[in-house]
Amino acid sequence: MVPLSYYLILGGILFACGVTGFLIKRNIITIFMSIELMLNGVNLSFVAFAAQWHALQGQVFVFFVMVVAAEAAVGLAIIISVYRTRETLNVDQVNLLKL
Amino acid sequence: MLSVHFVLFLIFGVVCVAGAVNLLVQRHPINSALSLVVVMGSLAVEYLLLGAEFVAAVQVIVYAGAIMVLFVFVIMLLNAGEEERTQGSRVAWLLGVPGMLLGSILIAWVVLNHSGTGAVAIGALPGPPKALGWLLFHDFLLPFEVTSILVLIAIMGAVVLAARPEKRES
After folding, report:
1. Do A16 and B112 touch (CB under 8 A)?
2. Which fold has domain B4-82+119-162?
3. How far apart, in whole angstroms, are the C-alpha atoms of residue B137 and residue A4?
4. Which residue of B has its CA nearest to A51?
C-alpha cells in the first residue's frame, strides 16, 4: 500500500518542473516540451484519483488529455513556420508581430 | 513495511523526477527531448502500478512513441543548437527555481495535510480495454466525436502551416 498523496506529490513535482522549464528555457521547442511535462503531471493525478474513487472515468479523461497533447503537431508546425520567417528558435528574438 | 509496490513506486518516481530535472538542466534540445522520453516511460510504470494497464500502453505508444518522435524530428529538421543564456533567462532562473521549490512544497503540504485521501493497493483499479472502450463509446460518445473533429482540424492546420509557401508568379 502506498499513500495516494505520494502519487499526487509526484504529479505536483512534475507539474512544477514543467512550469519552471516554461519560465527558464529560451529555446521554443524546449518550452513546448515543458508544456508536455505539465500535461503528464496532470495525467498522473487523474489516474491516481481514479484509483482512489474506483471511477474508471478518470482514466477516460487521460485519453482526452492525450488527444489534446497530440495537438502538439499544430504547435510544431507553428514552430517550423516561425523558424522559416525569423531563422531563430530563441524566444527573446521573436518579439515582432510583423516583419 | 517496504512492500514491492512502495519500492517500485520509489524507484520509478526517482527516475521520473531525475528525468524532469535533467530536462531543465540540459542546454541542447535533443538531450531535453530524450530525458522527456525517460519521464514518460517511468510514468507508464507508475500507471501500471495503479492498475491502469491500457493507459500505460497508450502512454508508451502515443507519448513516448509518436509525440516524442515528432519532437525529435522537428529538432533535427530545424537543426536546433544549444540555447544561449540571455539576461532574461538569468532573471527567470533566479525567480523560476525558488518559485518551483515553493510551489512543490506548497502542493506537498496541502496534499499531505488536507487531502483526506487514503492509500492505494497495487493494481487498485484495473482499467481493461473492454471497460474503457464501453465507457468511451457509451458515456463519453459526444466528447469522443467532438475530439475526432478537433483532431481532423488539427491535422489540416498542421499541414497548412508546415507546407512551404508556394511562390506567387506576378
Report:
1. no
2. Four Helix Bundle (Hemerythrin (Met), subunit A) (1.20.120)
3. 29
4. B125
Nearest-angstrom CA–CA distance, B68 and A71:
13
Residues 40 through 69 of chain B touching chain A, CB cutoff 8 Å: 40, 43, 46-47, 49-52, 54-55, 58-59, 62-63, 66-67
The backbone torsions φ and ψ at residue B115, rounded to the nearest 5 degrees and listed phi first, read -85, -30
Give the CATH number of domain A4-92: 1.10.287.3510
What is the Cα–Cα distance from A94 to B92, expressed in whole angstroms? 17
Question: What's the pTM value of the predicted model, to 2 decimals?
Answer: 0.89
User: Do A70 and B96 make contact, defined as CB atoms within 8 angstroms?
Assistant: no
Q: What is the dihedral of CA A15, A40, A94, B30, to 10 degrees?
A: 110
Of residues B50, B84, B93, nearest to A48 (C-beta): B50
**A3, containing H or E segment:** strand A2-3
Nearest to A57 among B75, B78, B135 (CB): B135
Q: What number of other Cβ atoms are within 10 A of residue B22's Cβ?
A: 17
User: First CA to last CA across chain B, in angstroms?
Assistant: 78
The domain limits of chain B are: 4-82+119-162
ipTM of the shown complex: 0.91
Task: Say if residue B35's pLDDT is above 60.
Answer: yes
**Residue A18 forms contact with B (CB below 8 Å):** yes
Query: Which has the higher per-residue pLDDT, B60 or B121?
Result: B60
